[in-house]
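Task: sequence design from structure.
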C-alpha cells in the first residue's frame, strides 16, 4: 500500500505543477485577439491524420524524416503502456491492460520494438547535433540555451527508452508467468539471467520508477522548452488555416471603412444621433497584445527545426529575415510582457515586438512566397504574421520604404505601380500581327457592349501585361494564340486598373480593398462572373 501512496503523491505533484504551468500559459491567450472560427471539423481531422500522424511534411527529408516519424509513432504506442503504468501505480495491479488479450500483446510487443528503434535514432540525433554542423540548427535567434535544451530533451528521451527496455527485461526475469510479448527484451533477458531473483526484482522496480518519474519530469520540462511541440503540434495542426497558401484574409474593419467611403450616402454623412462610437482598433501588429490566438499558438508549437528558414529565399540571399525567429521572438516577448499585461492591461514598458525584437528590415525582406509555411511540419503560417506587422507599419505609421510609397502613389493616381498614364494601357496591343502578317484586333468590353455583344471570356491583362516590356511580349503572343484559336474574348482596355495585390502584400490593405472594390464594380457593370 505504501507504494501506491507514494505514487499517488508523486503523480499529484506532477499534475499540480503541470496544471499550474498550463494555467499560466492559457492566461496569455486572453491577451490575444480573435483569429477565425473553427469549422470543417472533418477536413481538420484529415489534415491531422496526414500532417501530424502521417508526418508527410517531415518525410520531405526522407532519411531523417523517417527517423523522426518512427520516434513519433513509437511515442504514440508507448503512451498506452504509460497509461497502464499510471493505473498500476494507483491500484497496485500488475499489467492491468492485459485483459485486452491479443491486442495487448501487439501493443506491448510494438512498444518494445519501438523503444529500441527510438533509442538508436535518438543517439543518431544527438551525434548529429553535437558533432555535425547542420546549418539550419544555427542562426542569430538560436542561443546556446536552445542547443542545451534540445540536448537535454533528447537525453531524457533516451533514458526513457532505456528504462522501458530495462523494466521489460527484468519483468521477464522476475515474473514466473509474464503477460505480453517482448521481442527485444526477450533477447536482452539472458544477459542478466545470472543475477539473483532479489536483484532482478530490485532492478525491475528501479527501472519502473525511473521510467514513470522521468515521464513526469519530462512533461513538466516541456512547456519551458522548444520541445513543447510534443504537446502542441497536433492541436496546432488541427487548428491550422485551411485556406490555400498565399491567401490573405480580409481586414473586416478596413472593408467596412472602404464600403462607407465608396458609398455616396455614407461617405460624408454625419454620425446618427445617439450612435455609439466604435472602439478604435489598431491596424496590424505592433506588440503581443495585437497578435491573434493562432499567432501565439504557432509560437508555442514552433519546433525551432529551421526548415522554414532553410527554404526562405530572402534568408538564402543573405538578408536578415529568418521565419523561425519571428515566432521565437513572439514567444519570448509574450513571456516578458504577458505577466505585466495580465496585472495591468495598460502596462507599457516602452518596448514592442516590432523594432525591439523584429526589425523592419526583416519584415520588408519577405517575398510572401509561402515556402516557409509549406515546409513547416506543424503547419505554422509565417507570412500571415509578417503581413500583419507590415500593415501596422504602413497603415498606422506610414513607415513604408520610399520605393514602396512611390508604388502606392502610382496605383492611387495612375491605376498601376509605375508612372504610366491610364490612357496608355492599350499601347501593348498596337501593331500585333499573326503568322500570316494579318493584323490582330483586340476587342474591348466597351466596344462589345456598344455592338450588343457579350464575349465568352474576359482577358485580364494586368499592369505587368500592359506596361512591363517583358510581359508585354507574353501578352502579345497570348492574344495571337487566342485569335488563331477563334476564342471569343475581350479586354477592359483603359478602364482596367491595377488589382492592388502588390499594395496588399506590402501592407496597404486600405489601397488594396479600394482597388478590389472598384474592379468588382467594373466587372459587375459588364456582367462578368
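Answer:
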Amino acid at each position: 500500500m505504501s507504494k501506491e501512496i507514494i505514487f499517488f503523491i508523486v503523480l499529484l505533484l506532477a499534475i499540480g505543477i503541470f496544471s499550474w504551468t498550463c494555467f499560466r500559459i492559457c492566461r496569455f491567450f486572453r491577451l490575444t485577439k480573435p483569429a477565425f472560427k473553427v469549422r470543417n471539423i472533418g477536413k481538420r481531422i484529415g489534415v491531422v491524420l496526414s500532417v501530424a500522424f502521417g508526418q508527410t511534411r517531415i518525410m520531405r527529408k526522407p532519411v531523417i524524416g523517417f527517423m523522426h516519424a518512427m520516434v513519433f509513432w513509437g511515442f504514440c504506442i508507448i503512451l498506452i503502456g504509460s497509461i497502464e503504468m499510471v493505473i498500476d501505480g494507483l491500484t497496485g495491479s500488475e499489467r492491468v491492460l492485459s485483459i485486452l488479450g491479443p491486442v495487448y500483446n501487439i501493443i506491448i510487443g510494438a512498444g518494445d520494438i519501438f523503444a529500441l528503434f527510438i533509442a538508436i535514432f535518438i543517439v543518431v540525433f544527438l551525434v548529429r547535433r553535437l558533432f555535425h554542423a547542420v546549418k539550419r540548427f544555427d542562426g542569430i535567434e538560436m542561443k546556446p540555451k536552445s542547443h542545451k535544451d534540445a540536448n537535454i530533451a533528447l537525453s531524457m528521451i533516451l533514458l526513457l527508452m532505456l528504462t522501458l527496455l530495462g523494466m521489460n527485461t527484468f519483468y521477464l526475469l522476475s515474473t514466473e508467468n509474464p503477460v505480453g510479448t517482448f521481442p527485444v527484451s526477450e533477447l536482452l533477458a539472458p544477459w542478466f539471467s545470472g543475477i539473483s531473483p532479489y536483484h532482478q526484482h530490485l532492478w525491475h522496480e528501479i527501472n519502473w520508477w525511473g521510467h514513470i518519474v522521468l515521464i513526469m519530469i519530462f512533461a513538466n520540462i516541456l512547456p519551458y522548452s522548444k520541445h513543447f511541440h510534443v504537446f502542441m503540434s497536433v492541436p496546432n495542426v488541427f487548428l491550422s488555416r485551411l485556406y490555400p497558401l498565399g491567401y490573405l484574409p480580409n481586414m473586416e474593419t478596413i472593408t467596412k471603412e472602404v464600403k462607407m467611403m465608396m458609398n455616396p450616402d455614407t461617405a460624408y454623412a454625419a454620425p446618427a444621433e445617439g450612435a455609439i462610437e466604435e472602439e478604435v482598433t489598431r491596424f496590424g501588429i505592433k506588440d503581443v497584445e495585437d497578435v491573434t490566438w493562432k499567432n501565439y499558438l504557432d509560437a508555442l508549437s514552433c519546433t525551432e527545426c529551421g526548415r522554414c528558414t532553410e527554404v526562405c529565399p530572402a534568408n538564402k540571399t543573405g538578408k536578415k529575415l529568418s521565419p523561425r525567429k519571428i515566432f521565437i521572438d513572439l514567444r519570448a516577448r509574450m513571456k516578458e510582457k504577458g505577466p505585466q499585461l495580465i496585472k495591468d492591461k495598460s502596462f507599457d514598458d516602452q518596448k514592442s515586438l516590432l523594432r525591439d525584437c523584429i526589425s523592419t528590415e526583416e519584415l520588408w525582406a519577405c517575398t510572401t512566397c509561402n515556402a516557409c509555411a509549406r515546409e513547416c511540419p506543424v503547419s505554422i503560417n509565417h507570412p500571415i504574421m509578417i503581413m500583419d506587422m507590415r500593415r501596422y507599419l504602413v497603415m498606422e505609421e506610414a513607415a513604408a520604404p520610399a520605393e514602396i510609397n512611390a508604388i502606392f502613389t502610382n496605383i492611387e493616381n495612375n491605376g498601376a505601380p509605375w508612372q504610366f498614364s491610364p490612357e496608355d494601357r492599350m499601347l501593348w496591343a498596337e501593331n500585333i500581327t499573326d503568322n500570316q502578317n494579318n493584323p490582330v484586333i483586340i476587342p474591348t468590353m466597351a466596344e462589345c457592349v456598344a455592338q450588343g455583344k457579350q464575349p465568352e471570356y474576359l482577358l485580364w491583362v494586368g499592369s505587368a501585361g500592359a506596361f512591363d516590356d517583358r510581359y508585354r511580349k507574353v501578352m502579345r503572343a497570348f492574344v495571337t494564340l487566342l485569335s488563331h484559336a477563334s476564342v471569343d474574348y475581350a479586354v477592359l482596355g483603359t478602364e482596367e486598373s491595377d488589382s492592388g495585390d502588390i499594395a496588399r502584400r506590402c501592407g496597404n490593405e486600405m489601397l488594396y480593398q479600394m482597388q478590389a472594390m472598384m474592379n468588382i464594380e467594373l466587372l459587375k457593370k459588364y456582367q462578368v462572373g
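The chain has a mean pLDDT of 90.
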